[in-house]
Each structure stands twice: as structure tokens, then as C-alpha cells.
Amino acid sequence: MLYTDGACSGNPGPGGWAYVLRHPASGKEVERSGGERMTTNNRMELMAVIRGLEALTRSSAVELYSDSQYVLKGLREWLKGWKAKGWRTANKQPVKNQDLWMELDALTAKHAVTFHWIRGHTGHPENERCDRLAVAEIERIRS
């Protein structure tokens, strides 16, 4: 199971991402976080998923939990069309964050990923944990 979250103070502004990766059989967990000085919330949401999937050492079945509709709709609905249209939106505009979407597309192709949306800031333990880690990265960058 992969739980992710991204945060940004200002948009753009300093941002943080975090993930918690839990092996369902062993219960072993890995958590990581990072951030950037000038970024957007959407980029941090994408980075959380990218870094979480990069942490996997072999092809895996992954249950991805995110509070980001942007990430989940992008993966479920928009990505195929963007690729077919040469990374253009329905309005023929360049896809925002194309670099990260391309990375994420390559990573999800290596795994069997099932997507789950969870409402953010409603007490979901792993989502709250990721949020705290991401916000801590923002504070680290500011200081």
C-alpha cells in the first residue's frame, strides 16, 4: 500500500511531498519526504507518488491512496488522451507538469496499480501522517 500527499505554501511557493509505503503481508513500512523551494501543490502531489513508486525494487501490485483528484483523475482518465494528442489537453494546450506525468506514466507501467481516493484532512491516519511530513518539509525549506 502506498499513501501519498503533497503540500505547498503559496502556489507557487515552497512545497513538500511525502509517502508511506507499507508491505501488506509483513507490515514493514518505509516513509520518505522531500521538498522544493519554488513549486506548486500539484507538482508535490505528483512527486509523492513518483518517489513512492521509485522506492519499489521490483514489479508489484500497489494500492495507491491519495487525496489528490488531480493525480488520480490524471492517471485514470486523462493520461491516455494526453499521450494520444501529443501531450496536449482537449483545448490543445500543453499538459501542465508533463515532465512528471511522463515519469509517472513510466513508473505505473511497471506495476499493477489500483487507485483509491481518500478525502484529505478527515483523520485518515496515513494521509494525516503524509500531510505532517510534507508540511514539515515546507518548514525545513523556510528555515
Describe this structure in words.
With 143 residues, the chain is α/β, with parallel strands linked by helices. The chain is 42% helix and 28% strand. The chain contains 4 helices and 5 strands, in the order E-E-E-H-E-H-H-E-H. The chain has a 5-stranded mixed β-sheet with strand order 3-2-1-4-5. Helix 1 runs parallel beside helix 3. The chain is globular and about 40 Å long. It starts with a strand and ends with a helix. The model has no long low-confidence stretch (mean pLDDT 95).
Layout of strands and helices, then pairs:
Layout: E1 2-8, E2 13-22, E3 29-39, H1 41-54, E4 61-66, H2 69-84, H3 98-109, E5 112-117, H4 125-142
Parallel strand pairs: 1-4, 4-5
Antiparallel strand pairs: 1-2, 2-3
Q: List the total number of helices.
A: 4
- Low-pLDDT runs of 5+ residues are none
Largest sheet: 5 strands, mixed
What is the average per-residue confidence, as pLDDT, rounded to a whole number?
95
What is the helix/strand order? EEEHEHHEH
Overall morphology: globular
Q: What proportion strand?
A: 25-35%
What is the first-to-last residue Cα distance? 32 Å
Q: Class by helix and strand content?
A: alpha/beta
Radius of gyration: 15 Å
Q: What fraction, in percent, of the residue positions are helical?
A: 40-55%
- Major sheet strand order: 3-2-1-4-5
Q: How many β strands by DSSP?
A: 5
